[in-house]
Design a protein that fits this description.
The protein is built from 15 helices and no strands. It is mostly helical.
Length: 289
């Protein structure tokens, strides 16, 4: 080959090499680039004292190079419905100490908090803490209000010390959905409850804010209870439609058509109710449910 061609060949080779260097980054798979860069960053970071890299637990970049959604989540984030404590661990724990230790790891686990409340409530001294955990459990899941054991804890708390009583009434009047007003009504007729507690429960069931939470069955029971006998007639149809056994407390006594008058003469105590046809219909409808 003629010597004069060497400079031309060298120049052409240099141009080709430069073009290849420029083109290579555009030809590379972006996913490979991202993976290589991540691997380099991990290897470049010093290990912690426990032998782990600072990058461990860091989310991987998405294939298109954009930030992963996990990058925007706060530290300690747990996906909705997730739990850092398994059901098996909750079932295995039996003492307050064991359950409290689990609760520090998973403070919003309704099942865990409910069990902790049950165990704490086993002793009178633990009732206040039990109610506090019932409150936390309700905040985590409103369905917890249907738990019969927790309902009994709240009812017990209503007769507790002032601070405990306040928490119990707070839960029943605002945080237990329809269950709260139901419990309040039961307190108004319970034989084992003090007059002070009954009066407080009675006042609560007259509160419009509480009645807005109540079920239709309880609302009509309260309306019948608070109405004068003759005024109850206007409520018979609604009682027939949605009433339950609680309405019977105000309806059944109205069936009597004698016993009033001088020396208990056979006189109708409530002639305003007429032949009682609508009353009897309402009572039959309730008993038939």
């Amino acid at each position: 080959m003629d010597v004069e061609y060497f400079p031309k060949i060298a120049t052409a080779g240099f141009v080709a090499l430069v073009g290849l260097v420029v083109a290579l980054p555009q030809m590379r798979d972006p996913r490979v680039v991202s993976a290589l860069e991540a691997a380099y960053q991990t290897s470049a970071e010093p290990e912690r004292a426990d032998g782990t890299h600072p990058s461990e637990g860091r989310s991987s970049p998405s294939p298109d190079g954009s930030a992963s959604p996990e990058d925007d989540k706060p530290a300690g984030f747990r996906a909705a419905g997730g739990s850092s404590v398994s059901d098996a661990a909750i079932d295995k724990a039996t003492t307050v100490a064991e359950l409290e230790a689990l609760a520090t790891r998973d403070p919003d686990n309704a099942k865990l908090l409910a069990k902790l409340a049950r165990v704490q409530a086993a002793t009178p001294a633990g009732l206040g803490n039990a109610l506090a955990n019932v409150k936390r459990a309700l905040a985590a899941s409103g369905k917890i209000a249907d738990d019969k054991d927790l309902q009994q804890i709240v009812v017990r708390g209503a007769s507790g010390q002032p601070a405990v009583q306040d928490t119990a009434f707070e839960l029943m009047t605002a945080q237990m959905g329809t269950v709260g007003p139901d419990l309040l009504y039961e307190l108004t007729i319970a034989k084992s409850v003090s007059k002070t507690v009954k009066d407080r429960a009675l006042a609560a069931t007259k509160d419009e804010a509480v009645l807005k939470l109540a079920s239709p069955a309880l609302r009509i029971a309260v309306q019948l209870r608070d109405a004068a006998p003759c005024d109850r007639k206007a409520l018979f149809d609604e009682a027939a439609r949605v009433g339950d056994r609680r309405s019977l407390n105000s309806l059944t006594p109205l069936q009597a058509r004698r016993g009033c008058g001088v020396f208990f003469a056979p006189k109708d105590c409530h002639p305003c109710l007429g032949d009682r046809a609508d009353l009897n219909k309402a009572i039959e409808a309730i008993n038939g449910r």
